Amino acid sequence: MTTDSPFRIESSWRRLRRSATAVLLSSSLLAPGLPQAQPAGIPSMGAASSTELSPALETLLGKAIMEQGRRDPTYINDPDVRQYLAAMGAKLSGQASGLGQPVQVFGVRDPQINAFALPGGYVGVNSGLVVQSESESELASVVAHEIAHVAQRHIARGMTQGSQSNTIMMASIAAALLAAMAGSGDLAMGVAAFGQAAAIDQQLGFSRQAEQEADRLGLEMMRKAGFDPRGMARMFGRLSSVSRLNESMSGGGYHSTHPLSVQRMSDIENRVRELPQQSREDGGDYLFVRAKLRVIQAKDARSQREVRETLQHEASTRSGAAQAAAWYGLAYAELVRGELDAADKALAQASVVKSPHMAQMRIQLALRRGADAVQMARDAWRDWPQSQGVALLLAEALQKAGKDGEGVAFLEERVGQWPEEPQFHERLAQGYERLGEAVKARSTMATYYEMVGALPTAVQQLRQARNLTDDFYLQSELDTRIRELRERQDMERELLKRFKT
Q1: Is residue 56 part of a domain?
Q2: What's the pLDDT score for residue 202?
């Protein structure tokens, strides 16, 4: 099979965000602002010569960026992908000494092999990195490298270096964020803000010393977390080969954002040789998530056909969990196409492996056919009580079966189990609405919008909830939440104005 290299594909949203950022960049240069007084409630940036962004200010900036990022069309909101990447991030960051902030790893639909760190401890992983990795340790090596940049505060330090290019970069990010906030969720401005922030590491141009420091710390994180350190050496070799194949092409890629010098590669190879052998068999979650991301990443008919051909080849040549994951990927691809019979046949081939991913596929197929999937979902939840994907499907099955009271009770427990996952709040709000509890529905939906960064919409939901009740105490609670959200909006605007100027 002959295909174009996935590293050469530039998606339309990337072009959009780059052009929108260019417009914002030029506007920030043409209309510089005046110095602002220190707003109440915002941490001090320190002296103009400060060598790094304060942790509190970095956290605020990171949250403002991610509020747009979660609404970006390339942000991957699939529960399996989210949970897998978050777990890997937690496992690696748990081995990072001196990490002063939590790390949150998320996925982005982009075929390029790349990952990036944002202010505030956020690490983005392109789908192309997962798809093109050949082992979980290879993937972990890049994620660990990015977490090391976070731990060493390379982003925070680089953003406040006194160069003109860094000042322009900060101004353009702030301008994009302000425009998105002012435009009540204008997609182009939000895309520009997130895209510009995602390119921070490329614009900062980390020093060789910083890159080597991140390599060494990342390697140690991998080793302590139980991954095979040789995965970093293998991934470096693959990235170097990819960069040579595409060196005449414009655009990003991990080599362009984190240049792989001969010195860096030799240093890691030497360090890996000195370490004891640490073989590791890839887990099923990695294989199934990689198969799923192949399908999620393919958006046009040609790429979707090529993905199916690749998965069919692997299904006929691999064995064990790798073969099952290929059949699962084929079933998922057919489900996305609406070919339910073909999805059934592919899933039957993978039945030798028991996993929450397989169970979810069976439940989804039942739901698409309008069958009663409640017992199937209950059985899956009994077997995998830590799977967010299974939990969401059980909630959906209960709702479609008219078991709204049971569904709400189940979701209330899941919100307690995973309080940071927006989808459970959204589903719970729908359940309250079906039960006729309009105030709870809007209040819970406000929480969902707050978590995904749509603060104006969250305020609207809370105001609607307030208008639906005569309970004085409940109105007071809602008034407090409205005030807090508006204060948060004002604080973020003032923060961004300062960065813009």
Answers
A1: yes
A2: 61
